[in-house]
Design a protein that fits this description.
Order of helices and strands: HEEHEEHEEEEEHEHEHHHEHH
CATH superfamily of the largest domain: MutS, connector domain
Distance between the termini: 68 Å
Number of domains: 3
Shape: globular
Number of strands: 12
Structural class: alpha/beta
CATH topology of the largest domain: Nucleotidyltransferase, domain 5
CATH architecture of the largest domain: 2-Layer Sandwich
Length: 302
């Protein structure tokens, strides 16, 4: 005989598929968290940690948040560097025979925000994928909230990567699990979530097929990136991650833009910082920067 209630067994089965995320488990009008997730979330969110009867094993740690006010709590978890898996009831409890069916309908991470309540009003929310090739870096960035999706391939020069990171300011970076050591220096210099992904996601053949299928084209030549294998790998990894976390079609990702560093006047990270283009030197604030001045428009047209 099981020592756990059917609900707890259901919870643990779903949690096993999302071990790297805080699981918000829908129970009526609340999202509940249990066991270690409850202990962590109660401390981060400063909410009461209580307990729930769990069968013969006794009581287990539990905390909860109202589903109608979940955005604020989710935002705080994301800001603290956590991923959040949203588990909803997928059938009407009144019609359920036995335990209500539940499944994760979305995984929210720093680089996959789409809700207005979670996004910063005046800045993009980029997810970056980065992979090292023999003599170059493949790089892709995408903002799921706007549909912006770009790729490039640059020489294997760390200073160029630093400039791209400073330019895009991604909220999360996807890296191949076999290259985490090579790219660890980035994590040490930037407070950005590093997410390790399967090598398969970055393989050129897999990524190319994924992109061709998504954009419904016969080749990537029209996007100008067909010869950039490392860049294609990075773009494919982003697309796979979006499908995995959003659990839905990505119809607003309509195109892929290829850019080259030589296409633009290049300002390195130190020049941009000294010019106070988006942040002030002394306090690292937007107020007082060039962006702050230009953004103070008085008409709808700007």
């Amino acid at each position: 005989m099981s020592q756990e209630t059917p609900m707890l067994r259901q919870y643990k089965k779903i949690k096993q598929e999302h071990t790297d995320a805080i699981l918000l488990f829908r129970l009526g009008d609340f999202y509940e968290m249990f066991l270690e997730d409850a202990e962590v979330a109660s401390e981060v969110l400063e909410i009461v940690l209580t307990s729930r009867e769990a069968g013969q094993r006794g009581r287990i740690p539990m905390c909860g948040i109202p589903f109608h006010a979940a955005s604020g709590y989710i935002s705080r978890l994301i800001e603290k560097g956590f991923k959040v898996a949203i588990c909803e009831q997928t059938e009407d409890p009144k019609k359920a025979k036995g335990l209500v069916k539940r499944e994760v309908v979305r995984v929210i991470t720093p680089g996959t925000l789409i809700d207005d309540q979670l996004l910063e009003e005046k800045s993009n929310n980029y997810l970056m994928a980065l992979a090292v090739s023999d003599d170059s870096y493949g790089l892709a960035v995408a903002d799921l909230s706007t549909g912006d999706f770009c790729v490039t391939q640059i020489p294997a020069d760390p200073s160029l990567i630093l400039d791209e990171l400073s330019h895009w300011q991604p909220k999360e970076i996807l890296v191949p699990e076999d290259q985490v050591t090579e790219l660890a220096w980035i994590k040490q210099r930037f407070s950005i979530m590093f997410t390790l992904r399967s090598i398969r996601d970055f393989r050129w053949q897999n990524a190319q097929e994924r992109l061709i299928t998504h954009f419904q084209v016969s080749s990537l030549e029209g996007f100008g990136c067909h010869h950039l294998k490392a860049a294609i790998g990075a773009a494919g990894a982003i697309l796979e991650y979006f499908y995995e976390t959003q659990k839905s079609q990505l119809q607003h990702l309509l195109s892929l833009r290829t850019y080259y560093l030589g296409d633009f006047m290049h300002l390195d990270q130190f020049t941009r910082r000294n010019l106070e283009l988006v942040q002030t030197l002394r306090e690292n604030k937007v107020q007082g920067s060039l962006l702050w001045v230009l953004d103070r428009t008085v008409t709808a047209a700007g």
